[in-house]
Design brief:
Helices cover about 40% and strands about 5% of the residues. The chain has one domain. A hairpin with a 6-residue loop joins strand 2 and strand 3.
Length: about 190
């Protein structure tokens, strides 16, 4: 594991980054959970770094939480009129286009990830994807209401693209951090 992938628990606190303005993110598009898992594993094995406010372990822990929440539910939802309006105005875009960066998770929320060992985070992430692939039921989305399994899966793929776009790999020859641009034949494609 690289020094960049080590837990940041012992590192000095950083000033929060406005993730809406972060440049140099990777452009990823996932068509399946297998592609997400392959990308996550490749990044975990590489010299990588996260360029937002979270470590790579925190990103994986957050995606694990949200994978499980799309089956178990979040325990809250917006009022029905708000869900109807969000579904009418935003659902199609959120299922097909990249999600915007910069959403702030409230402090104390279960969705706010803890840092952990990268190997442990990767194992939990693998288990959550296996669960998503094997369990057909999906909970009600807190903003869109009832979604089909396919719609929930599309939303979660867009969600994974957003967070995984903040993880960069290092070119060994040049020693610089770059967004990794993989072709569709390798499982990942540009928009």
């Amino acid at each position: 594991m690289s020094t960049a992938s080590a837990s940041s628990a012992s590192a000095a606190p950083r000033q929060p980054v406005n993730t809406k303005r972060v440049t140099g993110r990777r452009e990823v598009r996932y068509e399946s959970f297998d592609e997400v898992l392959a990308d996550a594993g490749r990044l975990a094995e590489s010299n990588h770094r996260a360029i937002g406010n979270w470590t790579y372990s925190q990103i994986l822990n957050h995606l694990t939480y949200s994978n499980n929440a799309m089956i178990d539910g979040l325990g809250f939802s917006l009022p029905a009129p708000a869900r109807w309006l969000m579904s009418l105005l935003m659902k199609r875009r959120m299922l097909t286009k990249p999600l915007p960066a910069g959403f702030k998770i409230p402090k104390g929320s279960d969705a706010l990830p803890q840092d952990s060992d990268l190997g442990e985070a990767m194992e939990r992430f693998r288990a959550s994807i296996a669960r998503v692939k094997s369990e057909p039921q999906r909970a009600m989305h807190p903003g869109f209401g009832h979604l089909s399994r396919e719609e929930w899966d599309l939303f979660q793929l867009r969600h994974a693209e957003l967070h995984m776009s903040f993880v960069l790999t290092q070119l060994a020859f040049w020693g610089c951090w770059v967004p990794d641009r993989r072709s569709r034949s390798q499982g990942f494609r540009l928009y």
